[in-house]
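Notes, p. 3: input format for complexes.
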Amino acid sequence: MPQQPDRKKTIYFWIIFLAVFGVMNVLIYNRFLKKQVSEVGYNVFMKMIDEKTIKEAALSSTQIIFEGKDGVIYKTGLMEDANLYERLYKSGATFGAEIEEPMNPILYYLLTFGIQILLLVIIWRLMMRRLAKRSGDDPDLLSFSMSGGRGRGTGRIYVKSKNDVRFKDVAGEEEAKDLLTEIVAYLHEPEKYTEIGATLPKGALLVGPPGTGKTMLAKAVAGEADVPFFSISGSEFVQMFVGMGAAKVRDLFKQAKEKAPCIIFIDEIDAIGKKRDNSLSTNDEREQTLNQLLSEMDGFEGNTGVVILAATNRPDSLDPALLRPGRFDRRIPVELPDLKGRIDILRVHAKKIRISENVDFETIAKTASGASGAQLANIVNEAALRAVREGRKVVQQDDLMESVEVVIAGYQKKNKILTNKEKLVVSYHEVGHALVAAMQTQSAPVTKITIIPRTSGALGYTMQVDEDDRNLMTRTEILNKVTTLAGGRAAEELIFDEITTGASNDIEQATKLARAMVTRFGMTEEFDMVAMEVLTNQYLGGDTSLVCAPETQTRIDRMVVDIVKKQHEKAKEILQQNIQKLHEIAKHLYENETITGEEFMEILNSSENTLLTNPEA
Ligand code: ADP
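Output follows (617 residues plus adenosine-5'-diphosphate):
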């Protein structure tokens, strides 16, 4: 029996059913009244002939069935009556025709009741199918209950679907795909492995930042191997009452074993797989669930054909017991895509929309450096929406470029009016960054500078695009970056002799970099190669926790301040030496609101020095 996926919808179902049931029964009842046969005497029959109230009559060898003009059906016995036909003829009744004798009322009711039950089953099945379709992102997803135990579950099974995910749909992530290919091969031909005595890993853990395609990869493994796919989120196991989560785990494995070969996919496994520790606030339910999962994983043989894939973006918080060989012993990193990966992902998603042929995906992928697969998919969709907004039928390059900015900095704020003074400050601030960057590297530091406010809160921003993906950063590069970050504030100080709140984000970033130099990258003489901080939650923004004595912390803070201060001074010096260019470019930006990298370099390299004497003019 299908599982009840949604309470509210089941209530609607019952309301509709009762209404249909009620109406049908009223109809049946009415029909009974009308079609009821009344047995009457022959005299009534004769009287009705005289009164000419008979519509139709059928005469058999033993009885007469006749229908009055009132719609009622009568029955009477056949008598010796010589000129019956003549009289009937005179009365205007049709006779000789067969009148259907109504069915036995009880039989009739039983039959109609059967139809009602049949109707109920059909409606129920249709509803379940629609609900199941809606409850998953796959049109062929069936949802069914987990039998037994208290844990009525939400284990879902994908039956073979027509438009399932394949490896080719997951762009980039070649290493992850390579590692998963073996699992696919095993699910295809388990005999090949069992013959030689090899046992395949029972589980593989997909580890990486959010939106990099972990769920997609797991679906693709099921799609490639053409096996059912059970998908459940770790948080669904965590229930209010102790023992319910564990029951769900039991149910899930029981069903999976019945459907083997198949794949179980547990998303966000950290919800149940967190380290069991001795902290006072124990979570019995979660621990029981985890224990059940561990014992289930131990409980089945490697060759039953059940492969467990799990995804997490917090691998460091997982219980070591979960990671030991025989459980999730394969760890598959699913990292943010590199440049090629980003181009491929954009291409995969661009296939779903109507796009101009001369779109340069490489430029877009370069601009969207650091974006995840999900963000890139979003960029393509935003571009399509923009094209529609602008009344075009085809997506163009500038739609994609604008949507990259939307994803990075939010939408343009059309009604945010900056005062002229503010606009000027923002212009100098942004050009300050760009100029400092340009003077340090002697190359185009930016692709675009704009002072159009965005919904992210940025009043303006400088878009930098690196030619290649960078994996390493030198000490000088980090210092240069801190100087560039300080460039905005330095410009404000130089020109307006006043500082604003606009630099808060720069300050945050500069501090983070300087701190990492001291505590994690071993880039100071004093601490040499000693780690003072460890990185936790690497895939979720990268928090750090200090691992040093309180006195050392004070020294670290001192050193961080020194680094930032020194680079701030350097930024001021650079701008002081190029103050005319600062005025020139800022004026241009102030007037045009957006300038490109080429325009920036043109002004920077031009020889005329038109000094703005009064910046507020
Ligand atoms: P995760 O499970 O890692 O958080 P998902 O697999 O749910 O991420 O991905 C979310 C969406 O992002 C997918 O539906 C897909 O549209 C897009 N996406 C992510 N990574 C890729 C990729 N490598 N190739 C194509 N699309 C991707």
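The pocket of adenosine-5'-diphosphate is lined by residues 170-173, 210-216, 311, 345, 348, 373-374, 377 (CB under 6 Å).
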